[in-house]
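Below sits the subject:

***
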Amino acid sequence: QSQGFVLTIALSSFNSKKESELVSYFTSTKCVDGIIIISASSKVCFDKEMPIVAVNTRRDISEVDCINAAYKETLVETIAYLKECGHTKIAFIGETLTKRRQRFFLNAMRVNQLEVNNDYLFVEKMRFEEAGKLAIPKLLALEDKPTAILCAYDDIALGAIQALHANGKKVPDDFSIVGIDDMPVSSYDEISLTSIKINRDLICNMAVDLLLKKLDSKYFTLHEKISIK
């Protein structure tokens, strides 16, 4: 707003087809000067003439600027931290939209030379807290239980903690839990959730700065690939 721009927000509800249609509409009608797109799917086609910055995209895009949180590298460090704390049996709880983070988890386990137990991988159809609540009964039913749990994001972790408490278990006495995103509620005393902080302010500021550079000069055609740890 301080630069005199009008912001239009379009929601795709994580639907790849809808996302592709929105980008095609904005680029073909030229009703906007530039686009910042979050989590571009593999189906999106980009117009090279339209200044576009993709944030946390799920694929490698050469024709636009990309700014991503370094989940892959950070999860390697996270699993290393859990290993240092004595954990070798580590579970993952996610949902259908977090398969990319699950792949990064599996990679982190391999890098840290830890065995991946398929029984410890929980991908729920429900999202947010419900995903965590649904996974915990299955986890507790295992004869050989994990000692630590990595959740795809904080809402899932909070749901998992609630389900563990409801089953008479304590965190971290019985299970250690790590979330991702460091949402404000994760710092409440009664929750005290360990979480991976995503530097959102820096990512958003860089995305806007990159887009403004493209809008200011049509000769600024370099496409940058930036990873924020």
Notes: The chain is about 35% helix and 20% strand.
